[in-house]
Design brief:
With 453 residues, this protein is an alpha/beta fold. The radius of gyration is 22 Å and the shape is globular.
Length: 453
């Protein structure tokens, strides 16, 4: 039987197959892991220490020659596929032309074109402007700077289970202490937390009621008069792929509009076709004042953006925003190629298809496995929450055990969630059907193997 292959420009042609030639991790990876632990701070962890030499389509190939199925996309980054040929070619051309000038010194049109594209594609048809940065956290920080500058107010509200980054302000915005915050304080002041809509754990509280609950906390504990911005992930990522109940986001956004508060959607993880729309806010037609994007925007090159209402974006003084590398020409070239790939390869529709396949599969598993408390997600951003049967008590140990079994069998899976008990699936949108099916066979076997243990 012939194995489908994918041509990776400038790189190898990668057979689209799961192939294990050693244990995982193999001897070469283990040797590199030893060097890593001598040379790299232990504070930077590695989830699955197989050292990568190539990746593309739906696979990651390691130094030992193992080919693993990728259900993580480097945490929702390589949505168009790793080393997507279009992206690889665009970046190669740009490297040959020039690698950096600093947009604040002598600018270039790649930056402007990315800004134009974001202004056009993000939710809402009002006048928009953009600014480019390097990482999700940096962009979230800048969105808050813009909101504070525009409103002349200081307080910021984030939500339970929220994740926004690891810099000082974004640590403050992030909910979970370990591993993100513990021991790293003091944190930025004027950050407050409101309750999220979390249908699996919320009983009968519907979207509008959950919004009412959050708004009540905000009004009583912060006050709209002091509040510059509300920052929210329309589907939470690190916090557990929490999809708020319908109506929640819109009600919070409406309250912000009525109260002179900037509604900031953090679409760092959900953006660029991942959820089966170009942006997760599109699903319910929610129009944020500012939208923060990163990850999937540039196929793995570091790029992030804040896009929003022109009058808000222009509020800070001239020269008030920037950075040496923000909107680097290589990253901009990659982003333009990513947008082309999303459109021409029909990746929004592909995300929906992958999502349907994954949800069907997980729901079938759930039907006779009470440890799968909840199956949820949208598009190619799907999760199962593992619990003690018949309860909502998180079972993180089971999640870790099943993940380890998947890794050993050559499938890259990630966990997440406040309690570490959520199994998340983020395949590249270039994932072929046969590999997705095989990966879920592995997940099913790993779950079955732990039954009754
Ligand atoms: N906002 C919604 O998901 C990054 C973090 C992994 P950076 N999520 C992955 C880790 O353990 O560090 C993320 C996100 C949302 C902001 C960020 C931050 O983006 O590019 O990692 O800074």
């Amino acid at each position: 039987m012939s194995t489908p292959t994918i041509a990776v420009t400038g790189g190898p042609t990668l057979p689209q197959e799961r192939r294990l030639v050693t244990e995982v991790p193999g001897p070469r990876s283990r040797e590199l892991a030893e060097r890593k632990s001598a040379a790299v701070t232990n504070a930077v962890g590695t989830m699955l220490p197989v050292y990568t030499v190539a990746a593309g389509g739906g696979v990651v190939v390691d130094v030992d020659g193992n080919s693993l199925i990728d259900l993580g996309s480097g945490i929702a980054v390589t949505s168009v596929g790793n080393s997507n040929p279009r992206v690889a070619a665009a970046v190669a051309d740009q490297v040959a032309a020039f690698t950096h000038t600093c947009f604040m010194v002598t600018p270039y049109d790649g930056y402007v074109r990315v800004a134009e594209a974001l202004n056009r594609l993000t939710p809402g048809d009002h006048a928009k402007k953009s600014a480019l940065f390097n990482s999700g956290a940096e962009a979230v920080e800048n969105a808050v700077k813009i909101a504070r500058s525009a409103t002349r107010k200081q307080a910021v509200v984030a939500f339970d289970h929220g994740y926004h980054g690891r810099t000082n302000l974004t640590m403050a915005l992030t909910a979970k202490s370990m591993p993100y915050k513990s021991g790293f304080g003091p944190f930025a002041p004027e950050v407050y937390r409101a309750p999220m809509s979390y249908p699996f754990r919320d009983g009968d509280v519907d979207g509008p009621a959950a919004a009412h609950r959050a708004i009540d906390v905000i009004e009583k504990q912060v006050g709209a008069a002091n509040l510059a911005a509300v920052v929210i992930e329309p589907i939470q990522g690190e916090g557990g792929f929490v999809v708020p109940a319908p109506g929640f986001l819109q009600a919070v956004a409406d309250w912000c509009t009525a109260n002179g508060v900037v509604f900031i959607a953090d679409e760092v993880q959900t953006g660029f076709a991942r959820t089966g729309d170009l942006f997760a806010c599109d699903d319910e037609g929610v129009v944020p004042d500012l939208i923060v994007t990163a990850k999937g925007i540039a196929g793995g090159l570091p790029l992030a953006a804040v896009t929003g209402r022109a009058e808000l974006m222009d509020a800070p003084h001239a020269g008030g925003l920037g950075g040496t590398y923000g909107g680097n020409p290589l990253a901009c070239a990659a982003a333009l190629a990513v947008l082309e790939a999303i459109e021409e390869d029909g990746l929004v529709a592909r995300a929906r298809q992958l999502g349907t396949t994954m949800l069907d599969r997980l729901r079938a598993l759930q039907a006779d496995d009470p440890r799968i408390g909840d199956v949820r997600g949208r598009g190619a951003m799907v999760a199962m929450e593992l619990v003690v049967p018949g309860t909502t008590e998180p079972d993180a140990a089971l999640a870790a055990q099943v993940a380890a079994a998947c890794h050993a069998a050559g499938v890259v899976v990630l966990t997440c969630g406040t309690w570490g008990n959520v199994f998340r699936f983020l395949p590249p949108l270039s994932m072929p059907d046969h590999l997705l099916a095989e990966a879920f066979d592995v997940v099913a076997e790993a779950l079955a193997a732990t039954k009754g243990m």
